[in-house]
Design a protein that fits this description.
This protein has helices spanning 37-43, 57-67, 85-96, 184-191, and strands at 74-76, 103-105, 124-126, 146-148, 170-172, 197-198, 201-202. The protein is an alpha/beta fold and 223 residues long. The protein is elongated. It comes from Oceanodroma tethys.
Amino acid sequence: FKLPSDSFKYLGWCDVEEHDVRGNQLHCPRVREGPSEEDLFFRGEQHTLKKRKQETDTEKWQKKLQENWENCSELNLSFQDLGDLYQVENFKRILQRLIRVEKLWLMDNSLTDVSAIRLPRCRELNVNKNHFASFKQLPKIPQIQHLSLSENNIMIISGISDFRHTPLESLILKKNPCEFQERYRQLVSSSLPNLKMLDSIPKLPKDCSPPDTSFFFKMCTIL
């Protein structure tokens, strides 16, 4: 039997009547959209469509103002369960509006490439447990100070030099394949001379020794 609330389970927070909650008032919003109308039909859940209606231009504008992601300074968009392409596109649409965000968490969203996104004021970014394979796939973050990239799929650190001209102080790369690269800490430290912390460990004097370029692309063998 269907619960009384069943027809509301895919309703977005902006569609709930009689409230004036803005996007910048939500620190951990659920922004993942529900299934498409076609998916709902094949699931046998077309009864939820009766709550949907064609939005007018005025309603679309009011929704845009209500979301007001441009005013967010601190936001957690982790664990969104982005299962379909249109949901990923909607998620990226929101990221593009975060022009004032300073602290942003995007953990466990199966993200692979958000290089088209620019976060001009972001100082702290957490993208743990995603599918990034390169530093080139990260958003543009010119003011970044603390970056956490643990449990991704970064094999080599050759693209890390892009952060040389940023105020990056702390970097976490734990549980990435590049962590097993020989002279890993020296390679990172030489690429980012202003870095103070790597994997939550302060930079050590031995980390500042020049790396042996012959080991640059070699990996450790664990027996």
